[in-house]
Design brief:
Blueprint: H1 2-6, H2 9-38, E1 47-52, E2 58-72, E3 89-96, H3 100-103, E4 107-111, E5 115-119, E6 124-129, E7 134-144, E8 147-148, H4 155-200, H5 206-237, E9 240-245, E10 251-255, E11 259-263, H6 270-286, E12 289-290, E13 295-296, H7 299-330, H8 335-347, H9 352-375, H10 390-414, H11 418-426, H12 431-460, H13 465-468, H14 495-504, H15 509-545
Antiparallel strand pairs: 1-2, 1-5, 2-3, 3-4, 6-7, 6-11, 7-8, 7-9, 9-10, 12-13
Helix pairs in contact: 2-15, 4-5, 7-10, 7-12, 9-10, 10-12, 11-12, 12-15, 14-15
Length: 549
């Protein structure tokens, strides 16, 4: 036994066990996040129940069961006498009743003993709307221009046809407003800035102003035509309506233009539910958010996070590598160099919000303000780069993560055998050629390791981004079809901030909670994808140069 302990085998097994436990915990956490987040998109059956209120009357409720818990019976007013004497705990269910615009809330807790009966009628309908969340009820009529539609087809089939027509019109409206009208507004703004630039430069040639006015007139004519076309589309999309009977017996008319989709989950078979689930998942990753970010998708946040990380990588890699090369290859090793290394290591421990304050003060106000004064005078006093945006957020995170790249690159440089340097010099290469053609390629895997660590940290940061460019909802992406195509001055959305906003700033906490899990899972997956891409490049470089880290 003593020999076994002295051999060190127990410590090897102890380390292996600790790593295994940590791995199981991480996988368990990811599984919990996945179940809580991805389960939100499954079309749950809709229940209709009657429950007993405190005054003894029965109330009908319609909705989805979303949660369940046990509570002490003493905490339920008006039900203690009706419970068996041995029942110390009772069931309590969270019911998503929807119809927030009519009932004032989306969710309601119901205790089990108060439920008189429950059933799952096949014709119960869930209406997903652009505003006010879901509505639950029975489809009873369809209207066109305020008149009830009488058709040989069932109302459900007619409703699906009208919804398909609405979706086609809605896509055309979005295309015209976002792409065509957006491009015209962008060109109009460029003309305004060009005219303002001529005034600031003191240009008196009226021909230049006339050319701008002619182009502006043409654009205004295009805009007026598009405005008429949009008015016709909005009139066509607003002609239809659907009437539903809700839980309290009221009949509610909803314009089809405000409906995203309608479905009857109680009639769906497993294959139909699986197909619906796939559609909802795709919508989550490919659509824009709506309803205070608690509905719809998160495509702008995914795009903003990925683009910011890639721009940050472009900035942090050369600066980190150059700093590491200087400290290892050129700087005289002494007290000053050791002090610089200590400072670099300490920078990695500075709270991230401090970097955000620095980025706001230096990049936004000093550097951005100077750029506006030099190159965008015609836009002043409106800021162009003198306001938080994508570029300043990327630079701030580059400064935050550059110590990681410096340390990793220095470690890689220190592991290159001295004989390789001396052999290169002996063959007639200069120090710069040796460094550029021999040492740095062999250090590339270590550089990629530093970049992987930098990407993992930058993708999850939130505090500095709140100061230097991230917003709750970005009206347009930082990349579009307007020159210069990549707009580094624009604000953007970020998955980390989206999680914070939905989880802590949402007016509807219960509705937002599943999206917090789903967005967190997507952020983890995005980081994994970025890291796997960097790891693949690192492995290719390692094989190419046959150098160990």
């Amino acid at each position: 036994m003593r020999e076994w302990i002295r051999s060190g085998s127990p410590w090897v097994w102890l380390n292996a066990g600790a790593v295994s436990v940590c791995l199981v915990m991480v996988l368990g956490l990811l599984l919990l996040i996945a179940v809580r987040g991805l389960g939100h998109f499954w079309p749950s059956n809709i229940v209709q129940l009657h429950h007993l209120e405190e005054d003894g009357s029965a109330e009908r409720l319609i909705g989805e069961f979303v949660d369940h818990e046990k509570i002490p019976r003493e905490g339920v007013a008006g039900l203690s006498e009706s419970l068996p004497s041995k029942a110390h705990l009772i069931d309590r269910y969270l019911l998503k009743i929807g119809n927030r615009d009519l009932f004032g809330r989306d969710f309601r807790w119901i205790v089990g003993p108060s439920i008189l009966n429950s059933e799952y009628p096949k014709h119960l309908t869930a209406v997903e709307r652009h505003e006010w969340g879901n509505l639950y009820g029975y489809l009873i009529a369809l209207k066109e221009r305020g008149e009830v539609i009488h058709s040989d087809q069932p109302n459900w089939d007619v409703l699906q046809e009208r919804l398909a027509r609405k979706q086609g019109l809605f896509k055309e409206i979005r295309h015209l407003e976002k792409d065509v009208v957006g491009a015209i507004n962008y060109r109009m703004e460029r003309l305004r800035l060009k005219e303002r630039g001529l005034e600031l430069d003191g240009v008196l040639d009226r021909a230049a102003y006339r050319n701008i006015e002619v182009e502006r007139t043409d654009l205004q004519g295009e805009y007026d035509q598009l405005t008429k076309r949009l008015a016709d589309l909005y009139d066509a999309i607003g002609r239809d309506g659907a009437v539903f009977e809700i839980a309290d017996g009221r009949e509610v008319e909803i314009p089809i233009s405000k409906i995203v989709r309608v479905y009857q989950p109680n009639r769906m078979d497993p294959l139909e539910k699986l197909r619906f689930y796939g559609v909802k998942l795709w919508e989550f990753v490919s659509d824009e958010p709506r309803e205070a970010n608690t509905e719809g998708g998160i495509l702008p946040a995914i795009f903003g996070t990925a683009l910011m990380v890639m721009i940050m990588s472009v900035f942090v890699t050369p600066f980190g590598v150059v700093a590491a090369v200087y400290l290892r290859e050129y700087a005289k090793q002494g007290p000053l160099t050791r002090l610089i290394r200590i400072a670099v290591n300490n920078l990695a421990g500075v709270p991230s919000v401090v970097y955000g304050v620095f980025g706001l003060g230096f990049f936004v106000y000093v550097l951005g303000g100077s750029i506006d004064q030099l190159f965008f005078r015609e836009a002043l006093p409106g800021p162009t780069f003198g306001t938080p945006g994508l570029m300043w957020a990327s630079l701030t995170l580059a400064i935050l993560t550059v110590p990681v790249v410096i340390v990793a690159t220095e470690e890689g440089l220190s592991r290159i055998p001295r004989a390789i340097r001396e052999g290169s010099l002996a063959l007639g290469a200069t120090k710069a050629e040796t460094l550029w053609r021999t040492v740095l390629p062999m250090t590339a895997p270590a550089m990629m390791t530093g970049l992987i660590l930098a990407v993992a940290r930058a993708a999850g940061e939130v505090a500095p981004l709140m100061l230097v460019g991230v917003v709750k909802l970005a009206p347009s992406l930082a990349m579009d079809g307007n020159f210069p195509y990549l707009h580094l001055d624009r604000k953007f959305m970020h998955l980390g901030f989206h999680i914070y906003d939905v989880g802590f700033q949402s007016p509807n906490v219960e509705a937002a909670r599943p999206l917090v899990y789903a967005t967190a899972l997507l952020l983890v997956l995005l980081i994994i994808v970025l890291n796997l891409a960097a790891i693949h490049i690192r492995n290719r470089l390692r094989e190419k140069y046959n150098a160990a880290e």
